[in-house]
Write a structure and sequence with these properties.
The protein has about 240 residues and is mostly helical. It is about 55% helix and about 10% strand. Strands 1-2-3 form a 3-stranded antiparallel β-sheet. Helix 6 runs antiparallel to helix 7.
């Protein structure tokens, strides 16, 4: 989401998201608002779109970075007195996933902050959009107001630049599609099952040894994700137990 805090009461003027189409490709969708009435319409359009997709695919998640988007959605649903039940549905079912909390608790990145612009250096090349940061988008939107360019991003160079930046943000937080099991992995699983079904102890032991190291690594990952979701109090208790 892109917001303009200099407007009276603040204005969330762009809701953007990427989603996979039937071909598995990421497509960008957006809702714009340049005044308070349009903000309500944009919120309703975004929440209706998300809620419908979630109802059709209950395992769906919205991946975002830091708490801004969730806080904004909560605030706008009460400000405009609309879509509160749908927002509650999404929150109660943990549809929103904050990648910032996961990254901050699980990685040391050797940078001065855990902002997405710093973290993404680990997995993608340098951005080439005209708008470079959230602060820059605020400046650009203020410039758009002063220049009185058209309200449609298709007709405004400034809005097009902000939209490109927002789409780049969304694509940066897109989670890789889960791949089907590879033929090699399936073959190993089939072999292990066949060996375990044999009556002799040697065959059963060999079946257990297949993928032994992969299974041994699982507790390490489980502990990492437990720590990522733990509260400060829970982390403190873990440290005390270890000493």
């Amino acid at each position: 989401m892109e917001g303009y805090p200099l407007a009276n009461g603040g204005l969330e003027y762009l809701f953007g998201a990427v989603a996979r189409n039937n071909g598995g490709q990421l497509e960008f969708v957006d809702w714009w608002a340049h005044d308070r009435a349009e903000e309500k319409i944009a919120l309703e359009g975004f929440i209706d779109w998300v809620h419908a997709r979630w109802r059709s695919h209950p395992g769906m998640h919205i991946y975002h970075y830091a708490a801004y988007e969730v806080c904004a959605v909560r605030r706008l649903s009460t400000r405009h007195d609309t879509r509160q039940n749908e927002v509650d549905d999404l929150l109660r079912n943990n549809v929103f996933v904050d990648l910032y909390q996961i990254v901050r608790h699980s990685l040391r990145i050797g940078e001065g902050s855990y902002s997405i612009k710093q973290v993404e250096r680990l997995y993608r090349g340098k951005r080439n959009t005209d708008v470079a940061s959230g602060g820059d988008s605020i400046v650009q939107y203020a410039t758009w107001i002063d220049t009185k360019e058209p309200r449609n991003w298709l007709e405004s160079r400034i809005l097009k630049g902000i939209r490109d930046y927002n789409e780049d943000d969304c694509r940066s937080t897109a989670v890789a599609q889960i791949k089907d099991i590879t033929p090699e992995a399936q073959a190993r699983q089939d072999l292990a099952d066949k060996l375990r079904q044999k009556s002799d102890e040697t065959s059963r032991t060999l079946g257990d040894l297949i993928d032994f190291h992969r299974r041994e690594q699982k507790p390490v990952w489980w502990r990492m994700f437990d720590r990522a979701s733990a509260t400060p109090e829970e982390l403190r208790d873990v440290m005390l137990d270890q000493h």
